[in-house]
Amino acid sequence: MPENEQNHSRATAEYSRVIPVWKFALFSIASMGLYQMYWNYKNWKFFKEKDNLDVSPFWRTFFMPIFLSSLFDRFSDMLKADGHPTNYPTPLLIFIWVFMNTCCPYAEGPIFLAYYFSFLAFIPVLDSLNVYWKKKFPDLPDKPLTAGQIILLMAGIFSFFIILLGTLFPE
User: Fold this and answer.
1) At what angle do helices 21-30 and 34-51 cross, to 10 degrees?
2) What residues make up the domain containing 92?
3) Of 21-30, 43-52, 73-82, 113-122, which range is least confident?
4) Long-range contacts formed by 26-29: CB under 8 A, 24+ apart
């Protein structure tokens, strides 16, 4: 690993960068996909600082369908450079994510609910990253949920169940 990446990662981490898949899924469903945008923003910000990139994390997130592939590729390059194999199919993952976010919200009936599961396209990337971060910094603790996050999760899950009931039992 390049020295600047290791120093940056250690200096900015009091908690592990590992994001359990269940947490990513729960936040994605509860936020109706907005957490995926937050995750995208935070990771572009990470690469901007780590690699001294001249990019705007905001605009990379705003145009997420265009730049998500290059983010996944950056992770793949970072992992491979440190000897961690990656085998996730970036084009397929991007296709799944774009399809679920563009077609499913306009579908009728229960197919509409597939929109909430667009986080599935992130799981192979998250799994690879989680293995990497656990090996890189095994002593860092997982970041606990804050009271605000718990409140937002409860509100989001409540909203999801209202939408679920409305979709499954229209009248």
Assistant:
1) 130
2) 19-168
3) 113-122
4) 26/153, 26/157, 27/149, 27/153, 28/116, 28/118, 28/119, 28/122, 29/116, 29/117, 29/119, 29/156, 29/157, 29/160
Q: Are 140 and 16 within 8 A, CB to CB?
A: yes
Full DSSP string of 23-40: HHHHHHHHTTTHHHHHHH
Q: Does 40 map to a domain?
A: yes
Query: Using an 8 Å Cβ cutoff, are 16 and 143 in contact?
Result: yes
* CB of 134 closer than 8 Å to CB of 79: no
Rounded to an integer, what is the distance from CA 96 to the centroid of its chain? Answer: 14
Contacts of 22 (CB under 8 A, 6+ apart): none
The tokens describing 5, both together, are 């990446």
Domain-embedded: residue 3: no
pLDDT digits (tens, 9 = 90+) for 29-79: 999 899 999 999 999 999 999 999 999 999 999 999 999 999 999 999 999
The structure tokens 């306009």 sit at 106
